[in-house]
């Protein structure tokens, strides 16, 4: 786990300070079974640009939709 401790319920609790223009983001994605809530505590979090985080979330949602990813479907993610 990166940048300090977080509850196994969330990688980015509301109590976590966020610098101006930044948002907390976790990997693996919160929307997956490997995310902080259900993944057993093995995750990373970082403060990233808020606009980029929002665009990344939209892109992930489109990926799920266009590839018909539903709960418990397996998929691989390559990070470039």
What's the short version?
The protein is of the alpha+beta class. Helix content is 21%, strand content 15%.
- Average pLDDT, all residues: 88
Largest sheet: 2 strands, antiparallel
How far apart lie the N and C ends? Answer: 21 Å
The structural class is alpha+beta
Which consecutive residue ranges, at least 5 long each, have pLDDT under 50? Answer: 1-7
Q: Output the number of helix runs.
A: 1
Strand order of the largest sheet: 1-2
The amount of helix comes to: 10-25%
What does this entry look like structurally?
The protein is of the alpha+beta class and 80 residues long. Helix content is 21%, strand content 15%. It is built from one helix and two strands. The longest helix has 17 residues, at 50-66.
């Amino acid at each position: 786990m990166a940048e300090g401790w977080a509850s196994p319920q969330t990688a980015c609790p509301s109590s976590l300070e966020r610098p101006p223009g930044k948002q907390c983001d976790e990997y693996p994605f919160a929307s997956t079974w490997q995310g902080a809530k259900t993944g057993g505590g093995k995750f990373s979090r970082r403060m990233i640009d808020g606009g980029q985080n929002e665009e990344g979330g939209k892109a992930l949602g489109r990926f799920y939709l266009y590839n018909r990813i539903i709960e418990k479907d397996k998929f691989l993610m390559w990070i470039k």
